[in-house]
Design a protein that fits this description.
The chain is built from 5 helices and no strands. By secondary structure, the protein is mainly α.
Length: 91
């Protein structure tokens, strides 16, 4: 099953550190600060709740490359497992 393949492929990825989640080092961008604060609570990408992924569904372009690689599998699983939740919220 593809969900298991994602978990296996990304399962041991190390947490990049809070400073590598979003690319706003000066902290002036409130949107990036909110994203960084929300995701920094989860040092294991498998623990990110679907509510946060849904709330921040447009956030991936604002991630640093390290943060993007770390949290991307959470978004991938969300898309595979909760497609109807995302679609319902968009309507």
């Amino acid at each position: 099953m593809i969900t298991q393949e994602i978990k296996t492929a990304f399962g041991d990825m190390p947490y990049p550190g809070t400073e590598y989640i979003t690319n706003d080092l000066e902290g002036n961008d409130l949107e990036r600060k909110q994203i960084r604060e929300g995701f920094s609570r989860y040092e294991n990408w498998q623990d990110v709740p679907r509510e946060l992924l849904l709330q921040e569904r447009d956030a991936l372009p604002l991630f640093e490359p390290q943060g993007f690689r770390f949290y991307l599998p959470a978004y991938m699983l969300f898309c595979l497992l909760y497609t109807s939740d995302a679609a319902d919220d968009l309507t």
